């Protein structure tokens, strides 16, 4: 089974790295990626706290919601960063940075 996304879709923007490694993708996070990451985490912590039915369960519920938010926010930021490096999302900033 071919799992290479480039086999089914062609990049619309300049390709900087067709298969970016983890460190390059995380290093490519921009301000909007960090903003989305923290927003998703913050909302998840709040929802976790509010979903605690009893006062004694609110703390563990908030921590669980926060962990889910951290993972979801990181994955969303990672997907956007990798998409820009692979040319699937607008990447003017990356093209300017990596042309040097």
TrEMBL record:
What InterPro entries does the record tag this protein with?
NADH-Q_oxidrdct_subunit, NADH-UbQ_OxRdtase_su21_N
* Keywords of the record: Membrane, Transmembrane, Transmembrane helix
* Regions that span the bilayer: 34-52, 59-78
Superkingdom as given in the UniProt entry: Eukaryota
NADH-ubiquinone oxidoreductase 21kDa subunit N-terminal domain boundaries:
11-89
The protein's matches in Pfam families, at most eight in alphabetical order, are given as: NADH-u_ox-rdase (PF10785)
Tell me which positions the record assigns to the signal sequence. none
Can you name this protein? NADH-ubiquinone oxidoreductase 21kDa subunit N-terminal domain-containing protein
Originating organism: Mikania micrantha (bitter vine)
């Amino acid at each position: 089974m071919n799992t290479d996304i480039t086999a089914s879709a062609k990049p619309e923007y300049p390709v900087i790295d067709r298969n970016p490694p983890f460190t390059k993708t995380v290093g490519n996070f921009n301000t909007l990626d960090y903003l989305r990451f923290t927003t998703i985490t913050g909302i998840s912590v709040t929802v976790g706290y509010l979903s605690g039915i009893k006062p004694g369960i609110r703390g563990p519920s908030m921590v669980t919601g926060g962990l889910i938010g951290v993972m979801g926010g990181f994955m969303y930021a990672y997907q956007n960063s990798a998409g820009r490096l692979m040319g699937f999302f607008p990447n003017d900033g990356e093209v300017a940075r990596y042309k040097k």
